[in-house]
Write a structure and sequence with these properties.
The structure holds 3 protein chains of 3 kinds. By secondary structure, chain A is mainly alpha-helical. Chain A contains 3 helices and no strands. In chain A, 73% of the residues lie in helices and 0% in strands. Chain B has one domain: Up-down Bundle (Four Helix Bundle (Hemerythrin (Met), subunit A)), CATH 1.20.120. In chain B, 75% of the residues lie in helices and 0% in strands. Chain C is an all-alpha fold. Chain C has one domain: Cytochrome c oxidase-like, subunit I domain (Cytochrome C Oxidase, Chain A), CATH 1.20.210. The radius of gyration of chain C is 25 Å and the shape is globular. The chains are: A mainly alpha, B mainly alpha, C mainly alpha. At the A-B interface, helix 1, helix 2 and helix 3 of A face helix 1, helix 3 and helix 6 of B. Chain A: It is found in: Cell membrane. Chain A: This is Cytochrome c oxidase subunit IVB. Chain A: Keywords: Cell membrane, Membrane, Transmembrane, Transmembrane helix.
Chain lengths: 110, 209, 629
């Protein structure tokens, strides 16, 4: 009943290759972790520095969006293939989420 | 495919979480659930934004008077690091190294517990220093509901990891429990995604004004 | 299997249904409990119409009237229409895509029991101090002020059943994405499966806002929060937005599966391939998408400003386009077809003008400026009953007749079916057509009584008489069901003779494993293709081999029961009459015990492995020989 994933037809043959690839990917993860820490630092510093909110708000939101993209595509493996349906539904959710938030900051009477 | 089958690190499939049909279903179903959770948290964020600093009188403290950025920074670092450690756990899961996976999951749980401790302290602090409670104003209700929902997700995630570890501690990895570990770690990452928006939208933007 | 089932005692059957994870049995559970709540909601509607039959009537008191109208709406939407649709989805969708079960049989059962206990909890309010009385929309300022525990029943009951709905929605999505038979591509899926797919996606994104809204209401009413209390900085518009961000997709969640049922019926009884299949699929997806962009048309008079009103008005009118595409495609499916007017087909044909009438008034209401006139009048009542009864209920009745043989293995009587149809159709139009004019004359909705001599007497009386026609029609349907099941004349695979999709290629009712061998799908309407080539059954896509099946489980029932118990605790830990000495010391322990039951059941589920079992090849072969006569 279960259908075998065809990515590794014979795991014994490409075992070494897989190990290497996994290691490489792990390195990517560590890099994205470092980037995320860095972006968090920038965000906190931008606020502490006391710039005007017209400048800080966009910076904060862009940094947050970038962090989330790193989380989703690297930590949660959305960069791997076979995530098409996942992406479709996740982005549909993000669209509804965006409209909801937009509504509540514009048309709730104040 | 027999889900009880014993593997070696060489026969272990590349994507053990998606090798069986049950695993594939679980994987997709959980991602869809996260799509729904996105909307759930969006509704909470939206409510918070609509009610931010909405208090009945001028004697109430506002966001800018209360939030403790150093505390939030530590919490952010803890949760972010726990996200990395759970990635390490999954790395070892895919390499069929059960012992290392367990170690990294235990580290993740530890970091999660530390986060939770700080959050409880933070709430305690706001309640006692600023009389900012769940019932004191609409702002208070919205703040504790949003951040509390996230905290409840952390609790559920921790409970999930712990149950999985207890159940499987002497069994090693197989195609029955690999998808469960994988999905639990997805949940943990999602909790971090939500936190990214909480520290940005609630705390940082709250401090800017 | 069926002979074994008949020999089982009542308790054994009951236990079987309490623990079942089989989608066909869960479908029957949904159909029965949804049908029961449909009758309850119908009785509430009849009382409303009796009260409004003559001016200045005192059949029920004003307070009771408010409870009745609230419970009528809530019951019909959440506890009747949705479960009945879930019943057909469960019964038919796995068969249509050639699957042996849904993706998560355990969660399927959990979804049902959550709905069931939520519904029972909500309706227990009648016996425990009064039902909710703030309308099915339960607008915050009103519902926060409502005394007694009525609104608490609404909040907790819907929270529990809403969780069940969300679970079922995810389950159907995964089933349709992952479990299709070989050859069943997306663009070969029957329209009912497609509409289930889109409706489930809507559930996934629409129910979380309701969940949040209900939580906020619960916190306000039971835990002292201030989300909707303006004196504490709260804002009642938040509830309206959250409710309608859920509420508008909700009506598409209801209508899309009904569209799907009608699409199957039109193609089957016109003996023609559905006209414009790809356009139908696209229209379904588009309606689903636009369904999220229009909710504020329920709030035109709130004062959101002309820009917001204009955007939402235009988006709302845009929905008429894909819906129009569908209407024309159905008519062109019939065009030139060899039509047989069976009961389901009668419903389908009657659906087109009835639903279109509701759609047209929808466009009228979408015009924001005009809506200031129509808002909160009987014109709105007429409009949404035209789309919901003319669309959803006709679809459910059609589906009942159409799929009854597949679900129960017997055929409902066609003569009685047609009597039901005519009584219902006449009654429906008599009840609601005239309400358009009542609304335009200025009769507000939700009023308890009206005064004589204002031109409202005769139309209201006609409306009430129409309602009685519908009631009689439902009674005839029930009689039909009883007669059919008592006679118990078994039917074969394809009782209508013109089945096109996979479900008609297997026995009625199907064996518990559905397909002995998964079928090979060679195009749209796979069974019709095989028939046209002279084959009597589907070509198998796999050799006969062992089938993996899930084990039955009692845990879903226990989990849901725990929440049901906890809900009583959550509700009674707040006392509305504390000044009169009413207090419930047992409430908090009950809340904790209930939650412990649920959490304990979840822990048992995760700690105890459940690998299911296998039906062996030999037993499948035996089954075949036993079935051969």
């Amino acid at each position: 009943m279960a259908t075998q994933q065809s990515t590794s037809a014979n795991p014994k043959v490409n075992y070494k290759y897989r190990r290497k690839k996994a290691k490489q990917e792990m390195r990517q993860h560590v890099t994205s972790f470092a980037l995320m820490i860095f972006m968090t630092l920038i965000a906190f510093i931008a606020v502490m520095a006391g710039f005007d909110k017209i400048y800080v708000y966009p910076i904060l939101l862009v940094l947050a969006a970038m962090q989330v993209v790193l989380q989703l595509y690297y930590f949660m493996h959305m960069s791997h293939k076979g995530h098409g349906t996942v992406a479709l539904f996740l982005y549909s959710g993000v669209l509804v989420a965006f409209i909801t938030v937009l509504t509540f900051v514009t048309i709730v009477w104040w | 495919m027999d889900t009880q089958e014993k593997f070696t690190s060489r026969t272990w499939p590349e994507s053990p979480e998606k090798t069986t049909l049950e695993g594939k279903n679980k994987f997709l179903g959980f991602w869809l659930f996260l799509g729904g959770e996105t909307v759930l948290f969006a509704s909470l964020f939206a409510t918070y934004l609509a009610l931010k600093d909405k208090v009945p009188g001028s004697d109430h403290y506002l966001a800018i008077d209360m939030y403790e950025l150093p505390l939030v920074f530590i919490m952010t670092m803890l949760l972010l690091t726990s996200s990395l450690t759970s990635v390490y756990a999954m790395y070892h899961m895919k390499n069929y190294n059960f012992q290392k996976m367990k170690i990294w999951l235990v580290v993740t749980i530890g970091l999660g517990l530390a986060f939770l401790g700080f959050e409880i302290y933070e709430f305690y602090h706001y309640v006692h220093e600023y009389e900012h409670t769940f019932t004191s104003s609409a702002f208070g209700s919205a703040f504790y509901t949003l951040v509390g929902f996230h905290g409840a997700h952390v609790v559920v995630g921790l409970g999930w990891f712990i149950l999985l570890l207890i159940r499987n501690t002497n069994r090693g990895l197989n195609l029955y429990n690999a998808p469960k570990f994988f999905v639990a770690s997805l949940y943990w990452h999602f909790i971090d995604v939500v936190w990214v928006f909480i520290f940005t939208v609630v705390y940082l933007m709250g401090m800017v004004g | 299997m069926s002979t074994v089932a008949q020999k089982k005692g009542f308790l054994a059957v009951l236990w079987d249904y309490l623990t079942t994870v089989d989608h066909k049995k869960i479908a029957i559970l949904y159909l029965t409990s949804g049908g029961f709540f449909f009758l309850v909601g119908g009785i509430e509607a009849m009382i409303i119409r009796i009260q409004l039959a003559v001016p200045d009537n005192n059949f029920v008191s004003a307070g009771l009237y408010n409870e009745l109208l609230t419970m009528h709406g809530t019951t019909m939407i959440f506890l009747a229409a949705m479960p009945l649709l879930f019943g057909f989805m469960n019964a038919i969708v796995p068969l249509q895509i050639g699957a042996r079960d849904v993706a998560f049989p355990f969660l399927n059962s959990l979804g049902f029991w959550l709905f069931f206990f939520g519904g029972v909890f909500l309706n227990l309010s009648w016996f425990l101090g009064g039902a909710p009385d703030a309308g099915w929309t339960s607008y915050a300022s009103l519902s926060i002020a409502s005394e007694g525990h009525g609104i608490d029943f609404y909040v907790l009951g819907l929270q529990i059943s809403g969780a069940g709905t969300l679970i079922s929605g995810i389950n159907f999505l995964v089933t349709i994405i992952n479990m299709r038979a070989p050859g069943m591509t997306y663009m070969r899926m029957p329209l009912f499966t497609w509409s289930t797919f889109v409706a489930s996606a809507l559930i996934l994104f629409a129910f979380p806002p309701l969940t949040v809204g209900l939580f906020l209401m619960m916190f306000d009413r039971m835990f002292g929060a201030n989300f909707f209390d303006a004196s504490m900085g709260g804002n009642t518009i938040i509830w309206e937005h959250l409710f309608w961000i859920f509420g508008h997709p909700e009506v598409y969640i209801l209508i899309l599966p009904a569209f799907g049922i009608f699409s199957e019926i039109f193609a089957t009884f016109s003996r023609k391939r559905l006209f414009g299949y790809a356009a139908m699929v696209f229209a379904t997806v588009l309606i689903g998408f636009l369904g999220f962009m229009v909710w504020a048309h329920h709030m035109f008079t709130v004062g959101l400003g002309p820009t917001a009103n204009a955007i939402f008005a235009v988006a709302t009118m845009a929905i008429a386009v894909p819906t129009g595409v569908k209407i024309f495609n159905w008519m062109l499916t019939m065009w030139g077809g060899s039509i047989s007017f069976t009961t389901p087909m009668l419903y389908a044909v009657a659906f087109i003008p009835s639903f279109t009438a509701g759609g047209v008034t929808g466009v009228m209401l979408a015009s924001a400026a005009a809506d200031y006139q129509y808002h909160d009048t009987y014109f709105v009542v007429a409009h949404f009953h035209y789309v919901i009864i003319g669309g959803v209920v006709l679809g459910l009745l059609a589906g009942t007749h159409f799929y009854w043989p597949k679900m129960f293995g017997t055929m409902l009587n066609e003569f009685l079916g047609k009597i039901t149809f005519w009584l219902f159709l006449i009654g429906f139009h008599a009840t609601f057509f005239i309400q358009h004019f009542l609304g335009l004359m200025g009769m507000p909705r939700r009023i308890w009584k009206f005064l004589p001599g204002q031109g409202l007497d005769m139309p209201n009386l006609i409306s009430t008489v129409g309602a009685f026609f519908m009631a009689v029609a439902v009674i005839v349907l029930l009689v039909n069901i009883v007669i059919t099941q008592v006679k118990n004349v078994r039917v074969g695979n394809d009782p209508w003779g013109d089945g096109r999709t996979l479900e008609w290629a297997i026995p009625s009712p199907p064996p518990f494993y559905n397909f002995k061998q998964l079928p090979l799908v060679r195009g749209l309407d796979p069974y019709w293709i095989e028939k046209m080539e002279g084959n009597t059954k589907m070509t198998p896509a796999e050799p006969l081999s062992d089938i993996h099946m899930p084990n039955n489980s009692f845990i879903p029932f226990v989990m849901s029961l725990g929440l049901f118990i906890a809900a009583f605790g959550a509700m009674y830990q707040v006392s509305w009459r504390a000044s009169e000495g009413e207090s419930f010391v047992w409430a908090l322990p009950v809340l904790i015990i209930g939650m412990l039951i649920t959490i304990g059941a979840m822990a048992v589920r995760s700690l105890k492995d459940d690998h299911g079992y296998h039906i062996h090849k030999e037993d499948l072969l035996d089954d075949e020989e036993g079935g051969r006569e």
